[in-house]
Each structure stands twice: as C-alpha cells, then as structure tokens.
Design goal:
The complex is a heterodimer of chains A (109) and B (122). With 109 residues, chain A is mainly β. Chain A is built from no helices and nine strands. The chains are: A mainly beta (109), B mainly beta (122).
C-alpha cells in the first residue's frame, strides 16, 4: 500500500516560514491535501488539490507538490499555527483507499 | 452550514461490536457530489481512514479493516453508521465522521464532526 512520510516535528520562530514535507513514491502524480489539527479539536482542511485554499484559510498557507515530495508552507508563522499537520492522498493503485501521513507537530518557538 | 455529529457508546467490551452513528444537518446526505466517511485517531497517534459510503449505499473500506467494518446509510434520517466487529484495545480511538469529496482524481474531507472517544475495555 502507499506510504506517506512526514517528519515528526518542525520548529519555527514567530514571523518566520515553516515548511512541512510529505514524502511518497511519485507523489507529484497525485493530489495532496493538508489538514491542521489543534489539541482536542477535529482536523481542518487547510490545503486541497496540492495548493488550493478553502475559504477562510489565510493566504499564509500554501502548498506545492513535485516529484517525491509535497510541501505545506506557512509564511509569517503565528503562535496560533501551532498544531499537528497531516498530509493525505487517494491511492488508486490497488484497492481504492485514502491514505494519511503520520503527522507533523509544528512548534512555534 | 453543514454540521456532522457522532453519537454512540463511549465504552465497548473486547470482542464486541462498536456502533456509531453520524447525523448530518444543514445539508442532504443524498447529495450526488459527496461520499460520507469515518476516520479514527488512537490517543496520541495519527489519523486512519476507516471507510466511506455514498447515499446509494455504495461503500469502500480501508483494506486493513475491511473484514471487520460495515458502513450503512439511512437517507430518511440523514444519517450514516459505522459498525466495527471483534474490537480490541487497539480500536480505542476518537472516531470522526466527515463529508468526503470524491472526484476522478482526488478525495478529501472538508467537513468533520467533533469526534467521539470510544474506549475498548472490560
């Protein structure tokens, strides 16, 4: 089955740029979606189709996807961005199913 | 505004069947554009997709759970349900229901319920 690999943690100072990666075999050929999850809350979709933002998501959140790595970029990081972030794809290679990455804890220093 | 709400027992005994229902409000479960899915998250761990259903009853499941999972839909009540059989402590998790956007090239979850914790213990 398809595997998505994320770093367990990323740290960034306020006002700087955070980059969270999601690795997978030829992931650039798939659409990648990103979710933000704060403690005790349900996940929130922040990026879909690699780089589209749902309404209400700040422009500071952006995404890219190429080759074997997709990246979620958060510009001008704020304390409120501290959360777990998960990437997700749809794997149609064998049994059709949804795959999540293991998640990355973003810490704002 | 679309809202989803999970309901069901918070405690299930080992070897028994976990049963949860998701009630959808602010929108129709019979919309042709969406599937409806279940996702779970063990305490302190990541997200795991369980399975999804279309209003017509068409389903597809995570291969790792397929033998134990049944998802059904009741369009008259605007609800869909999850049954997970032969549970063990490893099934202890927060269970989320979500609206599942499905296109020819991608699938994602834009609307989520608040989640409900189910503990498997005797």
């Amino acid at each position: 089955s398809y595997v998505l690999t994320q770093p367990p943690s990323v740290s960034v100072a306020p006002g700087k740029t955070a980059r969270i990666t999601c690795g997978g075999n030829n992931i650039g050929s798939k659409s990648v979606h990103w979710y933000q999850q704060k403690p005790g809350q349900a996940p929130v979709l922040v990026i879909y189709y690699d780089s589209d933002r749902p309404s209400g998501i700040p422009e500071r959140f952006s995404g890219s996807n190429s080759g074997n790595t997709a990246t979620l970029t958060i510009s001008r990081v704020e304390a409120g961005d501290e959360a777990d972030y998960y990437c997700q794809v749809w794997d149609s290679s064998s049994d059709r199913h949804v795959v999540f990455g293991g998640g990355t804890k973003l810490t704002v220093l | 505004q679309l809202q989803l709400q999970e309901s069901g027992p918070g405690l299930v005994k080992p070897s028994e069947t976990l049963s949860l229902t998701c009630t959808v409000s602010g929108g129709s479960i019979s919309s042709s554009s969406y599937y409806w899915g279940w996702i779970r998250q063990p305490p302190g761990k990541g997200l795991e997709w369980i399975g999804s259903i279309y209003y017509s009853g068409s389903t597809y499941y995570n291969p790792s759970l397929k033998s134990r999972v049944t998802i059904s839909v009741d369009t008259s009540k605007n609800q869909f349900s999850l049954k997970l059989s032969s549970v063990t402590a490893a099934d202890t998790a927060v269970y989320y229901c979500a609206r599942h956007t499905v296109t020819p090239t991608a699938e994602y979850f834009q609307h989520w319920g608040q989640g409900t914790l189910v503990t498997v213990s005797s």
